[in-house]
Structures are given as C-alpha cells and as structure tokens.
Amino acid sequence: MTKTERGSHEPTLAGADKNELENIEIELLLCGIHRLYGYDFRNYSLPSLRRRIWHRVHGENLSSISALQEKVLHDRNCFERLIYSLSIPVTEMFRDPGMFRAFRRKAVPLLRNCPFIRIWHAGCSTGEEVYSMAILLKEEGLYDKARIYATDINNRSLQQAKEGVYELSKMQQYSQNYLEAGGKRAFPEYYTAKYNSVIFQPALRQNIIFAEHNLATDTSFNEFNVIFCRNVMIYFNDELREHVHSLFFESLSRFGLLVLGAKESIHFTRHSDSYEPLDRAEKIYRKIK
Q1: Rounded CA separation 185/189 (Å)
Q2: Domain layout of the chain by residue ranges
Q3: DSSP assignment letter at 41
Q4: pLDDT tier at 4, thresholds 50, 70, 90
Q5: Distant-in-sequence contacts of 58-65, Cβ < 8 A, 24+ apart
C-alpha cells in the first residue's frame, strides 16, 4: 500500500470530536494553572475562557492550547500574560452614572450614620471605579472616615490602579460621566495632566488599600459596609456565582450594601431573601438578615 493510499484511510476528527478535544485541552490547562500557581479559573464561563485562551495562543505564536499549556507551566512570564488575557479589564470612571447618582441619593445618607466605613471593590481592575468612589466620598464629606479595599486577581491591573495614571484622551468621557453622576466640582481638579496621561491626586489614594484577591479561592478578610462587584460575575458559571454571593453575604455587615452590575442580579441565589432592593434599577441591595 502506498503512502497516499494509507493516508486516505486515516481517521479524521469530526467537528464534535474537535470541540471535545478542545474542551479537554482547556480543562488540562486550567487544572495545571490551579495546581502550579493557585489560580482557579475552572468555574469561569467556558465561551469567554475559550475566546481569551485562543487570543493568548495566537499572541504567543503557538498553534494549540496544549502548546500554550506547556509554555505556561514552564514560563512564569507566559503565565502572567495569560492571567492578563483571562481578566481583560473593561472599566471607566463613573461607569453607569445613574448608579453613582443613586448611591449619592440613597446610600450616602445611610453611611453618614456609620462611625467608620469599610468599602470593598471586588474585581477592581485598573482602579477607575475605585477612584470614582473616592471622589464621591470626598465630595460627601465621608472620605476621612472610610477605608476602601480594592482587590483583583490581575496584578498588572492592580499596579496601574496603585499608580492612578490613565490616558488623557479618556478624560472627556470621564468628565461627562462625572457630571451625569452628580459631580459637584470641575473634574480636572482631581488630576494633573502630563503629556498624554493624567495622574490622580495622591490624596485620593490615602485611604485605599490595593491587594490581590481571588474570588474563586480566597476567603473573606473583613466585614464591610459596602461591597461593589460590578460586571465581574458575568464571566462565572452558576456554581462560582453562588460561591461568590456566599462570600459577599459573609463579608457584609447587617444592613450593609451590595452593588452589582447592570446584567447581574441577587435573584435565584440562596441568599436572595436576605436582601431588599435599595435601588432595584441600579442593582443596589441592602442586607436585612
């Protein structure tokens, strides 16, 4: 039998088999990351993971997920690049201005009664939402008695958040968001422009603590009056979402506030009956049990 004849009878992978092979590759990659580095992405949404993993495969000039697994397990720098791809930050200052406006109107009066305020921004990305909250608290006279904990799994994003440096080109949009969110001053008063970047006032960082925290594997580390977790759990599967909601429930003080993203909800979780809506439209909930 000739080589051509042998090749014509070799089995080929059907579409369903290729998908199954790809799922196995992803599973092995995520298990390897969890065992070697301690990061657990195994309960993240599979379609989102697949898309971002292939982005990293191409970015490393590789041809398969298995090849990426080999490189990730032997090259810490490659692992760091993958982590960044799996947690690509999408955020902006005063994103969804209506939420910040509702927070000023409905949450701030409740916080005035607290002797000390602890706020957790879970999945803070590059820090735009954190600085937005710091500005809001400054304007409401609450910043001096507040401590903001800003956490993320992505160390590269956290580093940018710590520096408070952002692109000058984004400030026009951020200024508009700020005004729509009920801002009380001129937005440029909060930063200094230099070349094509801006740096936010160091005073805004005075009461902010930036730290790595993995919502999938790490536990509660304090009791909070407010927890923000916006547009993070949309990337999780049902099991991980339930786990994170339990983490937040354990971390909130009684009558504490949980603020979710526009596409997220407290409904259909085991703790849904333990909250009441402070502002249903803006996804601000108050713990009552």
Answers
A1: 8
A2: 15-86, 97-287
A3: -
A4: very low
A5: 59/85, 64/25, 65/22, 65/25, 65/26, 65/29
- Over residues 25-48, the pLDDT tens digits come to 999 999 999 999 888 999 998 998
* Matching CATH number, 97-287, of 1.10.730.10, 3.40.50.150, 3.30.465.10, 3.40.50.1980: 3.40.50.150
Q: Retrieve residue 198's tokens.
A: 């801006």
Would you state the pLDDT for residue 268? 87
Helix spans in the chain (H): 3-8, 15-37, 46-59, 65-74, 76-86, 97-102, 108-111, 128-139, 155-163, 171-180, 202-205, 238-251
Residue with tokens 């196995």: 24
Q: Residue 176 is which amino acid?
A: Q
In whole angstroms, give the CA distance from residue 225 to residue 286.
10
Amino acid 29 reads: L
Question: Could you please report the per-residue DSSP string of 200-267?
Answer: E-HHHHTTEEEEE--TTT----S-EEEEEE-SSGGGB-HHHHHHHHHHHHHHEEEEEEEEE-TT--ST
